[in-house]
Amino acid sequence: MRPLIALRTFAVTYACAVAGLSCAILLTQRPASAQPPIHFVEVEQQGGLLFEHFGGRTDQNYIIETVTCGLATFDYNNDGLIDIYLPSGAPLLGTAIEPAPTNRLFRNEGGMRFTDVTEASQAGELGFALGVAVADYDNDGDQDLFISNFGSVVLKANNGDGTFARRELASSLDAPRIGAGVSLFDVDGDGNLDLYVANYVKFDFSKGVSREIFGVPAAPGPKDYLPDPDSLYRNMGDGSFVDVSQSSGIAAVAGPGMGIVSFDYNGDGRPDMFVCNDSDPNFLFENLGDFKFEEVGLLSGLAYDLTGSAQASMGVDVGDFNHDGLLDLITTNFADETPTLYENSGAGYFDDRGPSLGLGVANRHVTWGVGFADFDNDGWLDVMIAAGHLIDSVREMNSTNEFAVANYLLRNEQGQRFKDLSSDSPAIKETRQVTRGIALEDFDNNGAVDAVLLNLNDRPQLLRNASNKNGHYLHVGLVGINSSRDAVGALVTVQVAGTKQTQIVVSGRGYQSHYGSRLHFGLADQAMVDAIEVQWPSGETQSFEKIFANQSILIREGDSVCFVLESRPALGK
Amino acid sequence: MSILQRVVNLLPLLPLPAFAATNRGRRNNINYSKLIILFSTTSFLGAVGCTPRPTAPTESSTPASHIARDQPPSNKQGTPLTPSAPASNSERETTEQIAVTTERQDKLNKLLAGEPPSSGKELRAEGRTLMAGLAESYGDLPDALELKARWLFLVGEVDSASDVWQQAIGLNPTYGYALHGLGKVAVLNGEYSKALELFQSAQASLPTQADVALDLAHTYMKTGEITKVIEVIRQFTKEQPPTAELLLLLGQAYLAERQYDEAKKAFEQTLELSPGQPRAQQGLGSVLVRLGRRDEAKLLLEAQKEVRSTVERNRTDSEILIDECEASSTLFVLVAKLYLADAKLEQAEAILARAIVLDETNLDAWRSLITLVQQHASPDFAAQIAEQMCSSNKDNASCYYTLGVLKLKAGDVESTLAAFDEVIRLAPEDHTGYESLAKILVQLGRSPDKALELARKNLAIKATAEAHELLAQVYAIRGELENSIASLNRALELSPNHPDYLQALEQLRQAQRKN
Fold it and tell me: Mind listing the pLDDT tens digit for each residue in B3-15?
C-alpha cells in the first residue's frame, strides 16, 4: 500500500464534495476594464530566479548548443507551491568555466518569490542538459527528476526530505547520445512509470559541421547527422530500469527526436507516445500491449503538417482545445512553418487545423516551448509559444529576422480561432529573447496561470498573470492507488455550464520540459462545477458532482470523496 | 514593358528552348518534282528557323563572310549595334571586324574558362559589384531596380531590397514585380494584411503570373482565410493554365476545409502535372484515410515517405554554394538581357559568360550567349560554344538539338547528323529527333531506308498531318510514288485543303503520269 497523501505543510480540509460549506465562493461581478483579456507582467528580478543558462558558447556552432534546453516545474517539497527547476548546458570539448554552470532548483516561497535551494537539495547537475521530466517513479509520494543530457540520462531521486540523490540511468550507453525530450508513462498499466527518452542525432565533436549562407556563418541542422533512435526503459518496480528499446520496437525507426508527450490517442486504454522529430516526419508510437509499439505517424496524420511537409517539430503539448472530449496536439517548429494544431477526429487520425484556426500568425520565427493553458479562465485553453532563432547572425542572412524575438500568446476564441494577443502584454511583445522551454503554472496559487521561460544563454523570465480576474478556476490534483501515484495518463473531465473540458495528467511535455502535474480548469463565470469525472489509467472511473470553484482539490483513486486542499476567495477580491 | 515580359521577346532563342516544345517556322513550299530527284535546298532549314546556307560549306571558316552576309542586329531604336567602319573602305572594314571579332571570341573563351567563386562571400561580393553597376547605369529603370532588389532579397538583405522596390514603385506605382517583392517583404515582417494588399495590387498588374497568385493564396493560408485561398486559385486557373504548386495548395485548402472529394481531385491534378510529387502524394494519402480507404492510403503514404527519406538531407557547404551560384546565375542572365536591351552587347556577353561559369546547367544563359555570339561570330564559333553547352549538359537532348542546328548552319553535315542521333538517344520518346534527322536525310538524299524508319517513328509518336507529309517526302525520294501519294492523302485528311499538300499531290500525280 502506498502512502495515500504526502504530509503537507498547510491545512487540508476534508470536505464532502457536494457540500456547500466553508469553501463556498461568492460570484464576482465582471469588472469593466480596458485591460486585455490576457495580460502578463514580468516579475522583477525574475522573482529571485538567479540563474543564467549556459549553452556552450563555443564559436563552433555545435548543433547541441542551439537546442538546449527545457525546464521543469513541480512541487518538490509538497508544500502546495510549485517550484522551478532550471537546467543548463555545460562547457564543451574540454573547456572549463568557473563556477561550472549547473542546473538549479528554486523553492517557491509564495508571492512569486523563489529561493535557490540547489546546494541544500543537492538537485544540481553539471551535465549538458536538454530535457527534463518529473514523475514519482517509485510511488513514494514525492516527485523525482529525470534529466536528459548530451551524454547520459540522470535520475535525481527525491528523498522526501528536501534532498535528491543522483543516479545515472542509461549507464550502458557506450557513446554519448543527445537525449532530448523525456517522459514517463505507464506502458503496461502496472502502476510503475516507464521512462521514454527521445534521442536527437548521432553527434560527436569530430562531426562538427560548419555552414555558410552567402558567406554568413550558419548553424548545422539535424539532417547533417544521422538520426538516433529513441530509448524506452521499463520500470521494474524495484527502482531499476531495463532498456527495452529494441524489443519494444521503439528503436526500429530513428528520427531526430525532441519534445514528446504521452497520451492514449485511440482510446484503447493504453498510453501511446508522440515524438516531435526535427525536420523529419513525427512519430506516433501506438502501444500494442505487452510492451510492443508500432510507429503509426503516417496513417494517424501526425507525421506531416497540412502542407505535407515534415516540419522541424520542436515542442508539443496535448489538450482538448475545442471541448469535444478528445485530446488534440499542438507542435512548434521552424520559421515559416505554421504551428501545427492536430485536431483529434476520434476516428484514428488527426487533422492539422493550424492554418484554419489562425495559428499562421505565429509562423515568422523558430518556435520551441509550447503549452495549452487557460490564462483568462474563460474555460478555453489558450496557447503560449516560445520563439528565438538558432543562429546569432541570422540578421545577416535575413535582415527581417532576429536572434532574439518576442514570444507568442494566442487566445482561444471558443475553439473556433486563436487570436494573437502577444502585443497586449508588454512582457511578451517587448521582451526580445531566445526562449527555449516554457512552463505554465499558477505559482502564486491565485487561480491564474503564470509562466516561466528558459532563455538560451540568458536569465529566465518569470511572468505573472495579471489578467482581469473575472473567471473562476479549479485546481485538480490526483493521487493514484492502482495507477501510478502521479496518475500519469489520467483523464479529468470537468462539466460546467453544459460544456465539458478534458485534460490529461502527463509527465513531460512542451519543449523537453515538464509542468502542469496539477491540472488547472478555467470556469468563466461559473462558481460551481456540475461534475468531475476521472478516468484512471487503471481503468477505474470516478465521478463527483457539485464542486465549488476557486479551490484546489485532490482526488484519490477509489475514494468516494475528494480533498479540498485550499480554497480562496473569488479572484481579484 | 517589364523586364520579365521583355526578356522573353528580347532574344530570339534557338529552337526548342524546352525540348518537347516545338518551334516551327513557316515552312516553304516543297517542290515534289525536285524532291523525287534529290532534295538539296531549303525546306527543312526554313522549318527549323535557321537561315540556309546559300553556297558551299567552306564559307563557314571565314567569320568575315558571316558578318558580311548577316544583317547586324538592331536595338529597339533601330540603330545598328555593331560598330561600323567607314563605308569608303570595305576591305579595311572587313579586316578590322575580323580583328574585333577574334578579340571578342578570345575574350569570351577566357571568360568561359573562368573559375566560379570559392565561397559564398566571394559570390556575394561579385553580385554586389554587378548590381552596383546595374543601378549606376539604369537607376531610373524599374526593371533594373527590380533585378537589384531580387539580388538583395536573395542574399538576405531584405530591408535593402525593400528600399529598392520602393524606388521602383516611385518610378512606376503599378510596377507589379516591385509590388510582389514588397508583398514578400511584408510576409517576412509578419505584416499579413499589408502583404495581401500588395499581392492583390501585384496581381492586378501581373494577372498571368502564377507565382503572384501563389503568394497571395499562401498569405491567405497564413491568415487562416482558407476559402479565400480556394477563391484565388480557382479564379487564377480559370484564366491561366494551372501550375503544380497552385493545385497542391488548392488541395491543401480543400483538405483544411474537409472537402475531401475536391481535395482528392486537386492532389490528383497536381500529380498529373508533377508525377511523384511527395507532398501531393502525402495529401492524396491523407484524403484517402479520411475517405476510409486506409489500405490504399498506407501504400501511397509509405511510398512517398520512402522517397523522401532517401533524398532529404542537408546539403554540404559546397552544395549550398552550388545552389547559391545557380540562383545567382539566373539573376545574372536577366541582368545581361537588360544590358542587351540597351545594345551593350559586350557587357551582356561577359555577364552571360559569367552566368554560365556560375551554373553550367543554366540553359537560358547558354542559349542567350549563343544567340548573341551568332550576331558577331562565325557559325563555327557558335557551334563551339554549343559543344561546350552539350559537354556541361550531357543528358539534355535540347542542347544537342541546338548543336545540330548550329552545325548545320556551319555546314558540318556529319556533326549535324551525329547531334540529332544523340537527340534521339537521349529523348527516344520525343518525335523531334526522328523528324529532324529524317528531314536532313531527305534533303541530303542519303540513307533512304533510315529516313523511312525515322519518318515512321516520327509518325508513330506524333500522327500529325506534318508527319504524314514527311513520310510522303521520304517515299518520294525512294521513288515509291503510290505510298507517297497515300501519305499525302492522309495528311490532307488531317489538314484538308492544305495548299502545300495539294500542290505536292499534284506534282506527284504528274510524276506518276510521266512514269
Answer: 333 322 322 233 3
Pair type for strands A72-74 and A83-86: antiparallel
Tell me whether residue B129 is exposed, middle or buried, using C-beta atoms within 10 angstroms of its C-beta: 0 to 12, 13 to 18, 19 or more: exposed
For chains A and B, what is the number of CB pairs under 8 angstroms?
A: 124
Residues 6+ apart with CB under 8 A from A260: A180, A181, A182, A183, A196, A198, A273, A274, A275, A276, A316, A508
The answer to whether B289 touches B302, Cβ cutoff 8 Å, is no
Residue B302 sits at the chain A interface (C-beta within 8 Å): yes
With beta carbons less than 8 A apart as the criterion, state whether A463 and A450 touch.
yes
Q: Identify the residue among A211, A214, A253 best suited for mutation to test binding to B, counting B beta carbons within 10 A and taking the highest.
A: A214
Provide the shortest C-alpha distance from residue A285 to chain B (in Å). Answer: 16
Q: Strands A472-479 and A551-556, how do they pair? A: parallel
| Residue-by-residue DSSP string for A360-377 | GGG-SS-EEEEEEE-TT-
Inter-axis angle of helices B210-222 and B176-188, nearest 10? 30
Are B305 and A396 an interchain contact pair (Cβ–Cβ within 8 Å)?
no
ipTM, two decimals:
0.90
Distance from C-alpha of A136 to C-alpha of A142, rounded to nearest angstrom? 6
Distance of alpha carbon A346 from its chain centroid, rounded?
A: 23
Report the chain A residue with the minimal C-alpha distance to residue B315: A224
Residue contact B285–A211, C-beta within 8 A = no
Say if strands A435-441 and A519-524 run parallel, antiparallel, or are unpaired: unpaired
* Burial per residue of A130-150, b for 16 or more beta-carbon CB atoms within 10 angstroms, e otherwise: bbbbbbbbbbbbbbbbbbbbb
pTM of the model: 0.84
- Given the C-alpha cell 543522483, which residue does it identify? A166
Query: Alpha carbon B187 to chain centroid distance?
Result: 31
* Grid cell at residue A251: 528503436
A508, A10 Cβ separation under 8 angstroms: no
Q: Is A308–B282 a contact, with Cβ atoms under 8 angstroms apart?
A: yes
Query: Tell me: the pLDDT tens digits for A160-180?
Result: 999 999 998 865 445 789 999
φ and ψ at residue B234, rounded to 5 degrees: -60, -45
CB atoms within 10 A of CB B138: 19
| Chain B nearest-CA residue for A398 | B156
**A28 pLDDT above the threshold of 60:** no
Contact B270, B248 (CB under 8 A): yes
For residue B512, give the DSSP letter: H
